[in-house]
Hints:
Blueprint: H1 8-14, E1 26-30, E2 33-36, E3 41-44, H2 47-50, H3 59-69, H4 82-94, E4 99-103, H5 106-124, E5 131-135, H6 144-149, E6 166-169, H7 174-180, E7 185-190, E8 193-194, E9 200-201, H8 204-216, E10 220-224, E11 248-251, E12 262-266, H9 287-300, H10 303-327, E13 330-336, E14 339-344, H11 352-361, E15 364-365, E16 367-368, E17 373-376, H12 384-404
Parallel strand pairs: 3-15, 5-6, 5-7, 7-10, 10-11
Antiparallel strand pairs: 1-2, 2-3, 4-12, 8-9, 11-12, 13-14, 14-17, 16-17
Helix pairs in contact: 3-9, 4-9, 10-12, 11-12
Amino acid sequence: xxxxxxxxxLFNDVMVPNYNPQTIIPVRGxxxxxxxxxxxxxxxxxxxxxxxxxxxxxxxxxxxLKDQADKLxxxxxxxxNEPALxxxxxxxxxxxxxxxxxxxxGGEANEAAFKLARxxxxxxxxxxxxxxxxxxxxxxxxxxxxxxxxxxxxxxxGFEPVPGGITHCPYNDIAxxxxxxxxxxxxxxxxxxxGEGGIICGDPAFIKRARELCDQYNALLVFDEVQSGMGRTGxxxxxMGYGIEPDILSTAKALxxxxxxxxxxxxxxxxxxxxxxxHGSTYGxxxxxxxxxxxxxxIINDPQVLADxxxxxxxxxxGLNAINEKHQVFTELRGKGLLVGAALKPEWHGKAxxxxxxxxxxxxxxxxxxxxxxxxxxxxxxxxxxxxEGLAGLEKGIADVVAAxxxx
Length: 408
């Protein structure tokens, strides 16, 4: 039984208006299905914005959380704890990294990554080597430093002055990166698949050249894998599909499967610059979060699960192409694995949110990636029948929007 006094209208009365949530209030989820206060059932293609990588209330994650809840919740980093040590060991064994810093979110993981990049350059060269190169349309979080590194002006407006020493280049533009980088560059920061910027995949030649340029100029390559990591692209981390390794990597979202956690991964070469007292997080490495994340990693890092991500992506592509043959709304499909972008035709630019709301009316939950791209980031283990049912709801929503016309 839900409290019917807790309505969407109450949000406007008691919450800061930085969000504009949908009209429904979900109250329960199981697998890739969600139920609202009225008992309406939805197929979840949103995944909590690429967070619920194993769906809602996965039994192994629930068991891990309940087990840890009876043992230890919080210590602070005056002490370490077993779940944090186990997770750090696991992440270093499975990736390029030698060392891990835990935080609570992707924004915090990126904040730590960018601070480390500057501190490493300061320690090894000097204060003049402080410039960070990032890319237009990138997104790295909502702290003042991360919105500054992020390549979307709208997130910085009204918060100036923002940290300096940051240059933004066009993504996938090798010549622009070659022109921008110098001996003053301390780091090149990129998402291997831009998420909020429109689900744009990094070109392999571009990413390879970025690695070469960082080596040439003694700069660090920082990968933001908050959205692309943890199996989302069919690899445990997207960098693994490019044949190169970063110096620093941020991970969050799917790492906790819905429980808040973030992590920054780096090498033995770079890690010493975050020496004792240089950075911290009260809740970072929380035993509850790390216990859940340990189970998430074990489930996702399975060859069959990762292979199935690519098979399920084909089901999405086939379904979306069939929808497009009928309704002619997409210019292309983007992304890798189960990070799916459908770019809208020019006449539908600025209307992505209309498609989201229309799909919801037909019991399918989707996302947008900016005003011109429909985004889907479902559970990596979503059943095939849920994909089919969700795409059917999406098609009905698209049909409604098309029938009303671009100017509705």
